[in-house]
Design brief:
185 residues; mainly alpha; elongated; 0% strand
């Protein structure tokens, strides 16, 4: 809530009293100081601060992972902007070869929760990241997505994803069962 000049003066003062480290990016000198500051905020204040920080970083074109780092720990409230940033960061993590991070971000996105019309897409994205990370939760998310769609073509596409995921996890019988069920439908 401060202007740039006031914030700069405040940051310089905090460096002088050794709360913040000197450098281009402000950071606390010691984790104990950071933890004490975080502990002094109640949950709502902490969430508001992280949401503001995420919006500021996004406005300044910060990498999606930096933005999402502030959003991953806030309480879910059904905020579409938060959902979009988490999905964006997950895509960047997948592109960077970090499916475990992507899976965590998409798990948090599912908790937001996404609106009904986006839920299947988020479930499928989460499942892809989880499958790439070798997590069996991918199958659970794909099965949920398959149950939620009504179109036969999309159900068949998801069935194929489920079967491929089971096969990647060496669950061959489950993969065959899903494919046989999809063919019968």
């Amino acid at each position: 809530g401060l202007g740039m000049a006031a914030a700069t003066r405040l940051a310089e003062s905090l460096v002088r009293v050794e709360v913040l480290a000197a450098g281009d990016r402000p950071r606390f000198v010691h984790p104990v100081i950071r933890d004490a500051l975080v502990a002094s905020l109640d949950g709502d204040e902490r969430d508001r601060a992280h949401r503001r920080a995420a919006r500021l970083l996004h406005a300044e074109a910060a990498p999606p992972g930096q933005v999402a780092a502030h959003l991953a720990g806030v309480r879910p409230v059904g905020d579409g902007w938060v959902l979009d940033r988490l999905r964006e960061a997950a895509r960047a993590a997948m592109a960077g070869g970090a499916p475990q991070i992507a899976a965590g971000l998409l798990g948090r996105a599912l908790a937001e929760p996404p609106p009904a019309e986006q839920r299947v897409g988020v479930l499928r994205e989460a499942a892809r990241a989880e499958a790439a990370a070798g997590r069996e939760m991918a199958c659970v998310h794909l099965e949920e997505a398959r149950q939620q769609v009504t179109g036969q073509r999309e159900r068949a596409e998801i069935a194929l994803e489920v079967a491929e995921t089971y096969a990647a996890l060496f669950r061959w019988v489950d993969a065959v069962d899903v494919l046989e069920g999809a063919l019968a439908a």
